[in-house]
TrEMBL record:
One of its GO terms (molecular function) is DNA binding. Pfam families: Resolvase. SUPFAM superfamilies: Resolvase-like. It comes from Candidatus Roizmanbacteria bacterium RIFCSPLOWO2_01_FULL_37_12. This is Resolvase/invertase-type recombinase catalytic domain-containing protein.
Amino acid sequence: MKNCFIYLRVSTLEQSNEGFSIENQKRTCIEFAKLKGYHVKQVFIDDKSGRTTDRPALQEMLKIINKK
């Protein structure tokens, strides 16, 4: 079984209220990973704009990936 990470982000309350909440994203991504035969090693969550890559959880995930 292959490992994977999940990265979740919502930048506005409006997005969250329109069905793009972190919980909805998480559920969908975990279901997809299982369907494809992946083991989710870790879930990373940011609540910042996607305009830049200056997001703590994204940077943490990229640091882990780049160590491999």
